[in-house]
Amino acid sequence: MKRALSILTIALLISSCNNKPQTNKLQKPNIVFIMSDDHAYQAISAYSDKLIKTPNIDRIANEGMLFTNASVTNSICAPSRAVILTGKHSHLNGKIDNLSKFDTTNVTFPQLLQKAGYQTAMFGKLHFGNKPKGFDEFKILPGQGSYYNPKFITQTGDTVINGYVTDITTDLALDWLKNRRISEKPFLLMYLHKAPHRAWYPHEKHYKKFTKKTFPLPETLFDNYKGRLAAKTAEMNILKHMHLAYDNKIDKEILKELNIYDGMARSEIKRMTTQQRSSWDSVYNPIISDFKKRYHKMNEKELTEWKYQRYMQDYLATIASVDDNVGRMLDYLDQENLSDNTLIVYTSDQGFYLGEHGWFDKRFMYNESFKTPLLIKWPNKVTPGTTEDEMVQNLDFAQTFLEIAGAHVPEDMQGESLIPLLTGNKEKWNRDAVYYHYYEYPAEHAVKRHYGIATKKYKIIHFYHDIDQWEFYDRSKDPQEIYNFIDNKDYADTIVEMKQKLEEIRAKYKDSEKLDNYYIELYNDLKTR
Ligand code: SGN
Ligand code: CA
């Protein structure tokens, strides 16, 4: 007893010598949930440094765990966010596409954390069409939001904040942490970047460096979509569907001179201040002049490659800002001695095609958009520098966070807590397949409705609605997913098993053909309204 007391006295003495606020070890862990929009795992150097170095995001994996097999249940923005908040698949939370409004009678994990005594805040992109529930404070972008001088929706009205969106989102989150955090309470901070969403407008400090870079071409840039009808009819091909003005930033007047009628104008230019515009012009005008000189000499292959490089330069430059700002956030948490008792997640609302299959955008159950980056740091719980290849999903966050907070987990949540994986108790984890269902069709990019399951080895997908086509992939032998083996006799038995498993999983998660049809009707209704 005497010894225990003296240790306590020493501890108190040490803490009173240090004037920084100390973490209360008895307090429940804080949760910082960092999510970017459309951030492909291929563009995080903890996964691969072929395209970009992201030292700050990598810090989370170096000090924690890198998940190599994390996926989403429905690869599109607002539905992914609804899955994260409710811990339920799209067909049960009702937010199946970007069109419909989120049903706010859903119970979300932030509401439950708030009830359990957490202070809660959200900054950045939500994309729900309505305000978030369960937050003591929020400042969110309307819809997709803007890169330059963006408007924010706040509890006291709308406001335009001058500057670059990724910096501003961080400023808002840090301002809350510095000035309104209640140190006696654990907190949930949802810090949600708009970047690197289309149309990929970088911060001016990254213009010069990135526009000079040349990136390696993905092996499937010239995919011919053989045996994959839904892939063939999708409208997200870099050559055919990426806009020279809107996406590649060529002035429409110049395109007119070249007899190119490309539809959409550059979206953010009109938002820029005179100073921002002149800094932009100084770097982008020479690119435009060069394109003007070369365009008529380019064949289709050269034009595809030119567009790919332009795409990568801008997309990756927006990520450089995300990385800078994640660094600011991590530094702040370290400086304030908050890191020790904080779980930090870095993820994206889905993956993205960076030229694989000739594409940009997402939506498909093929790897690059199905998989999503996931890095988690939790000092003293997660062994630093570990890699986890179990199949986890965005569906799992709600239950994980509720368990961390010691809060009650509603029976109807459909994920699995990641705690056994995070804390090295893998024997408690027994998931052998994950379910996926994409709905938004007919719509932009023309990706047909489909559902399917993935195991570590195989993937089976059923495209339906105005098509009835099955696809089957051997993930280990064909990681690029270019060979649809659905009619290959060697896999006949495996395909029967996978179809069986798919039916079981649909039943387990309460999805059905009846619901598929219900959502088709609802969607048609919404579109004609
Ligand atoms: C916008 C983009 C699309 C993108 C969707 C959904 N077009 O509509 O390319 O697929 O968002 O993205 S744009 O012309 O407006 O840039 S999501 O991340 O919000 O789901
Ligand atoms: Ca997105």
UniProtKB/TrEMBL annotation:
<dbReference type="GO" id="GO:0016787">
    <property type="term" value="F:hydrolase activity"/>
</dbReference>
<dbReference type="InterPro" id="IPR002591">
    <property type="entry name" value="Phosphodiest/P_Trfase"/>
</dbReference>
<dbReference type="InterPro" id="IPR017850">
    <property type="entry name" value="Alkaline_phosphatase_core_sf"/>
</dbReference>
<dbReference type="InterPro" id="IPR032506">
    <property type="entry name" value="SGSH_C"/>
</dbReference>
<comment type="similarity">
    <text>Belongs to the sulfatase family.</text>
</comment>
<dbReference type="Pfam" id="PF16347">
    <property type="entry name" value="SGSH_C"/>
</dbReference>
<keyword id="KW-0378">Hydrolase</keyword>
<protein>
    <submittedName>
        <fullName>DUF4976 domain-containing protein</fullName>
    </submittedName>
</protein>
<feature type="coiled-coil region">
    <location>
        <begin position="488"/>
        <end position="515"/>
    </location>
</feature>
<keyword id="KW-0175">Coiled coil</keyword>
<dbReference type="InterPro" id="IPR024607">
    <property type="entry name" value="Sulfatase_CS"/>
</dbReference>
<dbReference type="Pfam" id="PF01663">
    <property type="entry name" value="Phosphodiest"/>
</dbReference>
<feature type="domain" description="N-sulphoglucosamine sulphohydrolase C-terminal">
    <location>
        <begin position="355"/>
        <end position="507"/>
    </location>
</feature>
